[in-house]
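Summary for the steering committee. One of the milestones for this cycle was to obtain a three-dimensional model of the protein with S-adenosyl-L-homocysteine bound, which we needed before selecting residues for the alanine scan. The sequence and ligand used are listed below.
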Amino acid sequence: MSVKYQIILKPGREKSVLLRHPWIFSGAIASVAGEPCSGETVAVYSSRKELLGLAAYSPTSSIRARMWTWDAGETIDRDFFTRRLRAAILRRKVAVQADESDAYRLVHAESDGLPGLVIDRYADYLVFQFLTAGSEAWRAELVQLGLDAAGCRNAYERSDVEVRRLEGLPERCGILAGDPPPELLQIHENGLSFLVDIQRGQKTGFYLDQRRNRQRIRELSAGREVLNCFCYSGGFSVYAIAGGTAGVTSIDSSHEAVELGRRNVRLNGFADNEADWVVGDVFQYLRALRDQARQFDLVILDPPKFAPTAAQAERAARGYKDINLLAMKLLRPGGLLATFSCSGGISAELFQKIIAGAALDAGAEARVLEILSQAPDHPVALNFAEGAYLKGLICQVN
Ligand code: SAH
């Protein structure tokens, strides 16, 4: 191993690296030998000069380095990435059932031992996100090796994410390899079809992390009148119709998302009148429904990240409480609330507390029937608890 640069940690600040947490904050670093550039591999030493492993350096981020490996004998090169990519892809053979979907997450960054790299597969296309200086530095190699490992020839980049700014990187999108993607490409999930815009859609085009929960909503929808809040392109709505809903109303603030939702209903052979669509603000709409005394049997709340980090948790908690309280009031006795949070800054424990507070204020007696999380193609490495970001509860409300 020949690594040109070294960082030495402060005494007492080695613990998280020894526990195999991949992040090294700037405050934990005593000294940096030389001037490693953005994304360069650095050797990480304890204050007593023991070699702890190899990391990618990020000169502008407060997460100053991210561990590639704790095995000091490894070299960070094409072979290293080939091994990690193959292992990640092999993991999906367990995480995704054979006929479950042709769209799923192939690489889930830190949780697959590849900090800052996300690769989502949509049928014949791989969509890449390079979120950190380290993954950016290996971009060309990762695209080629990722395509090879996945047996795919088309790649598109969606590095249009704000977190790149913290890494001193500009946002970027575009074709990486193969054919330009169609305006909308079609994916197949649990026997249903969806149109996905990988170039301009939210995230990399579809909320792959909710796949298993969509299936659960299908099972729970039979004969129930459903309200799907923050519906995006109608994922939960299409599943609700497939499950025999007594009617589904879907709302999102994005006009494009709602249009795509309508198309997804038609694509699956369902009639237009099986679903009602609203473009609007959920906070206002729930109040309007309350004032009209509308009632539902199943309300889904899947809002965007209100609290990306713990710093925004308090404000976010108010937002979650508000919509959950309103939703509970719209439920018929015995109705179900399927409520989610994808905020990294809100723990599962805090989320449940917020929902409990909402029930109390709504004067509702509610119990958790099921605890939900992200689909298994978004694994959580046990040394990286932050990887568990999607929390969901199905509550019955009386
Ligand atoms: N449930 C969806 C994903 C929801 S993502 C799925 O499974 O595919 C969150 C969605 O909330 C986005 O589509 C975004 O456009 C929408 N959104 C954000 N703020 C909103 C608001 N105040 N009112 C309505 N929709 C909102």
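Key point for the committee: The two ends are 63 Å apart (CA to CA).
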